Automatic annotation (TrEMBL):
Pathway(s) where this gene product acts: Cofactor biosynthesis; NAD(+) biosynthesis; nicotinate D-ribonucleotide from nicotinate: step 1/1
N-terminal signal peptide: none
Keyword check for Ligase: yes
Residue stretches making up the Nicotinate phosphoribosyltransferase N-terminal domain: 10-128
Gene: pncB
Source taxonomy: Bacteria, Pseudomonadati, Pseudomonadota, Gammaproteobacteria, Aeromonadales
Function per UniProt: Catalyzes the synthesis of beta-nicotinate D-ribonucleotide from nicotinate and 5-phospho-D-ribose 1-phosphate at the expense of ATP.
Species in which this protein is naturally found: Zobellella aerophila
EC number per UniProt: 6.3.4.21
Similarity comment: Belongs to the NAPRTase family.
Catalytic activity: 5-phospho-alpha-D-ribose 1-diphosphate + nicotinate + ATP + H2O = nicotinate beta-D-ribonucleotide + ADP + phosphate + diphosphate
Keywords annotated in UniProt: Glycosyltransferase, Ligase, Phosphoprotein, Pyridine nucleotide biosynthesis, Transferase
Family annotation (HAMAP family): NAPRTase
Protein name: Nicotinate phosphoribosyltransferase
């Protein structure tokens, strides 16, 4: 019998805990819904269902240990009451609904935001690893290591890359838990100046790496249904974040309704309060030019801000962006699948997105075609009209 894929509740992205703390303090009773989608056509999950069910059952048995709680308490933005709450916390399997219908894996999560927010990343990691256990049971580890060494060489073999910084963002679509650990160990050992850390809290704790992350799309999406006028939802989300973290964790996500609409709301107040911006869809070159122009228009020196990139990056693509704009601002890159699932078999593009909050539909209008996920076309039309963007 194989060991469970998820062996710690920390085996997730940091931003799930930072958002969860904010939810505990500000919206503990808000009900939400998340839905799974496989964006890769023709993926066959038919033989995976029972293994996924067993892994979910094992996930819902986990509790944070005292050592893990002590690690979280050592992060200066994690508050003591949140630690006391987490000491009692356990995921509830009743909130997860899983089936296989019409050739597709059907999964949705429905329940209180506070008690469901930690499902997304481990569920995606479970589905991914179970899928590859079934479809690639004998991976070519040596090929994976050869590819990893090539990527390390791209960074290490040039003096101009000494200020290039990137992190591992690859938990949700990793080939396996063991492979992600090996990748992180090799990057930390061979690129100590450039490898900035990992979004995975468990790996950060066990390997002595810096945990990296702030907020995700769901945080800004939820505010579409949490009380303010829809047109004010982004500003309300950013205000809530500032109230919670008082200047810490200051990277704002820009593409919930597109970069142009975000910059309308990201006025001088927010531009001074936040340390920088994160790009997760659209053309990174055009996005950077808009971000730099916005800061300059507000008479803020872009060199005092950090631009973070995390949209389907490869090492080569990240280096290209870095070399083009390194004289203009500070940059950092979050690289996922390209690091943690590049052993030969084609990765699958799977997501779990918030689709409702407070009994209302919520959505993201991405800067990239195909990333929008919403079952209510009328709401998408309304959202686009309110923020004066195209669907």
């Amino acid at each position: 019998m194989l060991d469970p894929i998820i062996q710690s509740l920390l085996d997730t992205d940091l931003y799930k805990f930072t958002m969860m703390q904010t939810v505990l303090h500000q919206y503990p009773a808000a009900p939400v819904e998340y839905r799974f989608k496989c964006r890769t056509p023709g993926v066959d999950f038919s033989g995976c269902l029972e293994d996924i069910r067993r892994e979910i059952a094992a996930l819902c048995q986990l509790r944070l240990t005292e050592d893990e709680l002590a690690y979280l308490a050592g992060l200066d933005y994690i508050k003591s009451d949140f630690i006391h709450f987490l000491r009692l916390f356990q995921l509830d399997q009743r909130f997860v609904h899983l089936d296989y219908q019409q050739g597709e894996l059907q999964l949705y999560i429905r329940g209180p935001w506070l008690h469901t927010i930690l499902f997304e990343v481990p569920l995606l990691a479970i589905i991914n690893e179970v899928y590859f256990r079934h479809h690639s049971p004998a991976p070519d580890w040596q090929e994976g290591r050869r590819r990893l060494q090539h990527k390390i060489g791209l960074v290490a073999n040039s003096l101009e890359n000494q200020h290039f910084h990137f992190s591992d963002f690859g938990t949700r679509r990793r080939f396996s838990r063991a492979w992600q650990k090996e990748v992180a160990e090799q990057l930390a050992s061979q690129l100590p100046q450039q490898f900035a850390g990992t979004s995975n809290l468990d790996l950060a704790r066990r390997l002595g790496l810096r945990p990296v992350g702030t907020m995700a799309h769901e945080f800004l999406q939820a505010f579409q249904a949490l009380g303010p006028r829809l047109v004010d939802s982004q500003k309300a989300a950013l205000e809530a974040w500032v109230h919670e973290y008082r200047g810490r964790l200051g990277i704002a996500l820009t593409d919930v309704v597109g970069m142009d609409a975000f910059l309308v709301d990201f006025d001088l107040y927010f531009a001074k309060l936040f340390d920088g911006l994160r790009q997760d869809s659209g053309d990174p070159i055009a996005w950077t030019q808009k971000a730099l122009a916005h800061y300059r228009r507000l008479r803020i020196d872009p060199h005092t801000k950090t631009l973070v990139y995390s949209d389907s990056l490869t090492i080569s693509k990240a280096l290209e962006i870095y070399r083009r704009f390194r004289q203009d601002c500070v940059m950092s890159f979050g690289i996922g699948t390209h690091l943690t699932n590049d052993l030969g078999p084609a990765p699958i593009n799977i997501v779990i997105k918030m689709t409702a909050c407070n009994g209302q539909v919520v959505a993201k209008l991405s800067d990239s075609p195909g990333k929008t996920m919403c079952q209510d076309e009328a709401y998408l039309t309304y959202l686009a009209r309110v923020f004066k963007v195209s669907k």
